[in-house]
Amino acid sequence: MATTLSFPSFVWKNLQRRPLRTLLTLGGIGMAVGAFVGLVGFSRSFEQQWMDIYSSSGTDFAVIRGTFLNTSLDESATGKIKALPVVADAAPVIFNEMELTPDVNALVYGWPADAFQLNALRLESGRRYRDGQAEVLLGDFLAQDLQKKVGDRLEIQGSVFTVTGICHAASGFEDDAVIMPLDQLQQLSSVQGKVATIDVRLRPAPQGEAWDAYRKRAQAEIEAALPGLRAVPAAERASDNQFVKLAQASAWGVSSLALIIGILGIANTMMMSVFERTREIGTLRAIGWRRWKVLVLIQLESATLGIGGGIVGIALGWLLLRILAILPKTATFGSATLRWPLAAEAMAIAVVAGLIAGAVPAWRAGKLSPVDALRHD
């Protein structure tokens, strides 16, 4: 008789026994996985927006001193970098978040008028700014939000600037930003002669030299020419900064709390299931089921709940990503695309969560002796 009993049939039967409880459990783990997909997916889109700033302009390195927002780097170091044979171009950069209106804060970038980064912007209207002039470019998203056009005035921290152009960029951080002459932002920020970073674009690698080896050599040459400074690869710069880390920490923090609640929900469901089926488990043991088979049965039920919750959660997470991609405050940085690696990661987390939740109930079920279980009322 024992050989005719199958795990799938038992799992399906037991999950159907209390359909409302099963559905509520699926909803709980689904909400947790959905939070993970939505929030972690958004944080990765946020990181990609930073990467787009560098990739669109062809920036290979960011030369910095200390942390991401440190503005103690001397602007004069730009000339030393440009003089290196491996360097095609270099441009000093400073940026800050500033209040434009009582309701709108935005990133403000300061670049020289001849900075190579400006070549990555597409002018929708108007012209570029000029060094030494109170002029700015507006990203098209910010211009729409502020209802500004070419020729309008924009007040920033008590200084009035003329909007000379509206531009579109590959990154949402630039589409939703003000871009002005470096010297003007230095004056506004009271950091004359100082910059946050110097973006560097390398010359093509010599024939026969692999790009990775060439890039490492260039990094060493830049750092040797400027002791105390670091040449950070663009990809590392995009992922290793305070803004991205804060977004990632927030996403993982909220997701972790939601997953813990989901795990507790599955654990509660499985503990109740084991308690209600004590006599059934005793019968299975009495007809020949070994302890490991009972353990596997309970873990299969928990994993099935995790898989079901994972499917629900991926659907909810995709919906959350679409909502974040259209909300005015997050549309610039969000993406409605659900990438397969994230979906696979979410499903793996859901299954692991199910197995963790089922561990204690499975252990309790495995400990039941056939005699005591059959006597259970």
Characterise this structure.
- With 377 residues, the protein is an alpha+beta fold.
- It has two domains: 2-50 and 244-375, no CATH class; 66-228, no CATH class.
- The model has no long low-confidence stretch (mean pLDDT 83).
- The two termini are 25 Å apart.
- It is elongated and about 90 Å long.
- Strands 1, 3, 4, 5, 6, 7, 8, 9, 11 and 12 form a ten-stranded mixed sheet that branches. Strands 2-10 form a two-stranded antiparallel ribbon.
- The chain has helices at 7-17, 19-57, 77-82, 140-146, 172-175, 182-189, 211-225, 234-239, 242-276, 278-286, 291-324, 340-367, 370-375, and strands at residues 61-64, 73-74, 87-101, 104-111, 122-126, 135-139, 153-156, 159-168, 177-181, 194-195, 197-202, 230-233.
